[in-house]
Amino acid sequence: MMAMSHKYPDLSARNLGLAAAVVAIGGVSDWRLGLVFALWLAAWGLNIVLSGTGGSAKRFLVPTIFGITLLVLWQMSVRLFDVSSVILPAPSDIWMTILESVPVLWADFVQTVVKGALTGYVMGAALAVLAAIALDRSRFLQRGLLPVGNFIAALPIVGTAPILVMWFGFGWQSKAAVVVAMVFFPILVNTVAGLKDTEAMQRDLMRTYAASYWQSFFKLRLPAALPFIFNGLKVSTTLALIGAIVAEFFGSPIVGMGFRIKTSFGTLELAMVWAEIAVAAVAGSGFYGMVTLAEKRLTFWHPSQRANR
Amino acid sequence: MRNVLPVLTVVAAILGIWYLAVGPMNFRLALDAATRGGDTVTPASVAEQGQTGLIRLMLDNPDVIPAAYAFERPRLPQPQHVAVEIYQSTFGLIRRCEWQGWGADSDNWTGLSDGCLRVIENRRSLIFHAWKTLAPTLLGFAIGTGLGILLAVGIVYNRAMDLSVMPWAIASQTIPILAIAPMIIVVMNAMGIQGLLPKSLISSYLSFFPVVVGMVKGLRRPSQMELDLLHTWSASGPQELWKLRLPSSLPYLFASLKIGVAAALVGTIVAELPTGARFGLGARLLSGSYYGQTVQIWAALLVAAICAALLVGAIGAVQRRMLTRMGMAQ
Predict the structure, then answer these.
(1) pTM metric for this prediction
(2) Which of A92, A220, B41, B290 is such that its CA lies 20 to 30 A from the CA of A155?
(3) 139-158 in B: which are within 8 Å (CB) of A?
(4) Global ipTM
């Protein structure tokens, strides 16, 4: 049983004593610090109890409590310690800003996410998959391209943003171009790797059916490559948003998330900056979620998806 | 080694496409200059040229094509010009370099004259700027990796931590945090934190999550049978961690370290962009973009690429050696 106890710590007297001591030390030096510590440890204790006992709901409940605790602590610390809004605005201020400036945020979202990131993402992904299919027949080029592609995928491609803004102008086209450059190689490398991921037995079976290249491609190898392709697509969702936002730092029309972050920062409206960050976070998670959902629908047969059922 | 020829072919193809693209990319600029210079071109007026397709223009004015390649401030420089720029802003900076020998006569402690050290000390040197970017990257990478491993151990050994932190660690990967890196720098400056630390904070954040996610996977890799074996030997928790879990997580650690170090470098470069940093590869990119110095931008980009390759390559070399010695190499 000793081996198990460190894995599932309970609210033993020793842990409670330690918590009380931390709160006391914080409280003696500054009562506000004590309050913050007390709240943190109380929420943490609640989570320990929940994760030890709770049923299936805890998978959802425990992270939610953790997230809410962080928000409450943030709010409390900002208010208690009188942190200037120029350094860190409180979550409530950020929420008010979001509510007040929905039209602005929506316009920025459309400009950066829909026009810049999504267009570039779709174009880059399509190009990468087509390039992988074109490369599929040449072992020689694949052997050369995989190391080079892996290398380029690790490069700071976002640094091409100033060049591409120079080429394609300040509009959303240049942002889409940056996104294409950023997502192309991760998806290409994954697709090429995925197209190789069939067993000799499966390919032989297709041969015994006298399947043509394209038949065996569409019925066997493309479906088998889908988990890899989706891996690349998922990695690229964040890259697409980053590319679209960072490219706006180098020049943009007077709308867009990167533009807003930059200018709001110049005028020290930090609540607006954080509002844009919140929108970016929600957009990024939603984008990722949508790709994951598509993956679940299309690769339901794959072991990694079956395990979740 | 069997990949050398294919890799060289692909690199040559990329360079070839680059070289071929220089003409069309700069053609309109060169044609514009030729028109203003009084040369006879078809169509004669700038307005008409604007409405004509690029291919038509190039076919009608083949004389201008060499000018497009030799254009002064090109939209796309030729690859060899970029190489020359890199050379000139590294080893080309050497002036009167000689060996002075150790001792009192030499200008500095290295025994080389000051002229040699211009390679790393001159403000125009790309090596100088690369170091200004690499230093915070390495510091941040070390911090991020250390914290990431600690958190991963906590997550594996503590159920409450696993349930609370892990979903957020995964969700945070979908947030484009890099996009706000410059702002974080300015806030830290406002709080009085300056120097290496603000930039390293960005790189540590970026290398932190790949390490956490990879290490949690790796630390959980030992099978129940292996864990039971250690249990029968009455191994303590730390012994189980040190002798079983950590060694078997190493392949995952190295895979995430490679992702993490690349992300850390990108983080530092982006963090330098709009904050008015004077030194660093990001600062070179930005000043090149302000003054239309495309060659300078490309040179900075290529040096950044070389840095990334060196970092990832170094980790790869350590990985190969270590895993071979531990008998885990693929």
Answers:
(1) 0.80
(2) B290
(3) 157-158
(4) 0.76
